[in-house]
Design a protein that fits this description.
The protein is mainly α and 220 residues long. The chain contains eleven helices and no strands. The chain is globular and about 50 Å long.
């Protein structure tokens, strides 16, 4: 069994919890409050900076030149292409660069970014890919599921269409292939570390969505 199929099966219950959690249920039916969506988008924009750094480090650790290019381009996409989507919402809501910079990274986003960057710096290439994969894959599957349930007049249609789109799913397929490629040569001990990283990142995906639902703030 490829690593990706095994990892998905081991964490399928967690994915189902994410898919059906209140934030995504209300996002799908268009009832999600503007306050919660704004909180999510701002934190996601902060997150993408750290995610881009982790992808760049994956590029630096890749042994194959094609994978170096792959992850370097993915880092660029995370920061430039996806942030342009956030920027369109920011413009609509009157959030300029100064206002965005003044909003702190909240606990769950801070934890997730710190985990990914620490993993990218300290762990082998194979483990880095396993930690990065859930963000790609879970977003794609949640986006596709929401797209199937959302009405044409959903106020968050631009977000829904981006993560349900074929271009994003093609990027996910490339990430799955790269991770399976790396895992194919991994020792049993290294595979175990890859599974630990995949599960940790999946749990952090849940915490990120839940933090947006709770309008998470630092308690002190």
């Amino acid at each position: 069994m490829p690593f990706s199929a095994d990892a998905w099966a081991r964490n399928e219950a967690a994915y189902e919890t994410i898919r059906t959690m209140p934030f995504n249920a209300e996002l799908a039916d268009g009832r999600l409050s503007r306050e919660r969506f704004v909180h999510y988008i701002v934190q996601d924009a902060h997150y993408l900076i750290g995610f881009g750094r982790a992808l760049a480090l994956a590029a630096a650790k890749a042994r194959d030149p094609d994978r170096i290019v792959h992850f370097a381009r993915a880092a660029e996409s995370a920061i430039v292409v996806e942030r342009s989507l956030h920027g369109s919402f920011f413009e609509e809501w009157g959030i300029d660069a100064k206002a965005f910079a003044a909003i702190p990274v909240q606990p769950s986003a801070h934890h997730y970014v710190s985990y990914l960057t620490a993993t990218a710096f300290a762990e082998p290439y194979e483990v880095v890919l396993a930690a990065l994969l859930p963000c790609f894959w879970i977003y794609a599957e949640v986006g596709r599921d929401i797209h199937q349930r959302a009405g044409a007049d959903n106020p968050y249609r631009a977000w829904i269409d981006t993560y349900a789109g074929e271009e994003f799913h093609a990027a996910v397929a490339r990430m799955i292939a790269a991770t399976d490629e790396a895992a194919a040569q991994a020792s049993p001990a290294l595979l175990a570390r890859m599974h630990e990283a995949y599960t940790a990142a999946t749990r952090l995906e849940y915490l990120f969505w839940d933090g947006a639902w709770r309008l998470e703030r630092w308690p002190v």
